[in-house]
Amino acid sequence: MKKLIRVYIDTSVIGGCFDDEFAEWSGKLFRDFQAGRLKPVISEIVTASIEPAPTEVLQKYSELLSYHPEIAEITREVSELADAYLCRGILSKNYFDDAMHIALATVSEADVLVIWNFRHIVHLEKIRLFNSVNLEYGYKPIQIYSPREVASYEDTNN
Predict the structure, then answer these.
(1) Distance (Å, whole) CA 70 – CA 60
(2) Burial class (CB in 10 A: 0-12, 13-18, 19+), 21
(3) What is the pLDDT of residues 109-151, one digit of tens each?
(4) Eight-state DSSP code of residue 18
(5) Where are the domains of the chain?
(6) Cα separation of 70 and 115, whole Å?
(7) Where does 5-150 sit in CATH, by number?
(8) Contact between residue 140 and residue 134 where contact means Cβ atoms under 8 Å apart
């Protein structure tokens, strides 16, 4: 049996299902989860940040839970790695949750972090900086993309 690609997503991907700019590709990523082509990975941070969301986003989150996502745990290692991103100035303290998402995806060894945050995360220079810290701390580099680069272009396994 082929190993599924483990895809860590944040709340922007879930909420993106209801945003005109992002709905097509967030929706396709969810179809890949539903079809079993990709394995979703989330964390407690996703759960906590989704609670105040509108009803439609909460329903989409419930749908995601029906696909039995892996739950990446917040550990001392995750917190230390996130702090390292902040200490290096890759992200400011205002973006601590973003640093935690990257650290959670890295420490849990997700195959890819999928997120709609182009300014602070899905940006070549930022990705290089995150990965230099990851390597320094003994972790593998993490691939970071938007749903558009990860979701299937068709509803087939091809």
Answers:
(1) 17
(2) exposed
(3) 999 999 999 888 999 999 999 999 999 999 999 999 999 999 9
(4) G
(5) 5-150
(6) 17
(7) 3.40.50.1010
(8) yes
